[in-house]
Amino acid sequence: MAQSTKGKLNFRCPCCFMRDIDMDMFYDEEKKEYYCLRCGYKGDEKDVLRLNEQAKYRYKNLKKRVVSFNEDNEPITFEDYKGDKR
Questions:
Q1: Residue stretches of the chain with pLDDT short of 50
Q2: Beta strand spans in the chain (E)
Q3: Rounded CA gap, 55 and 52, in Å?
Q4: 3-class state of residue 12 by DSSP
């Protein structure tokens, strides 16, 4: 998504992103905080980065395929997804 203004880099809104909505946040120079026009979230850069790291944790295995669920108390086995093999 393109930024609307030049200057400080805009981040994705963590609240919208966790609901699968890709929304850029805007930066308020006076208050030194980021805000979202869609959901009303606002926070400083540290808070936005922390919440975006949580979103990355949720989608860390997005491009992997489950090979085996294994037995109880053993981790799930993944392999990289290489596309449709038909």
A1: 1-3
A2: 26-28, 33-35, 42-43, 64-68, 77-80
A3: 5
A4: strand
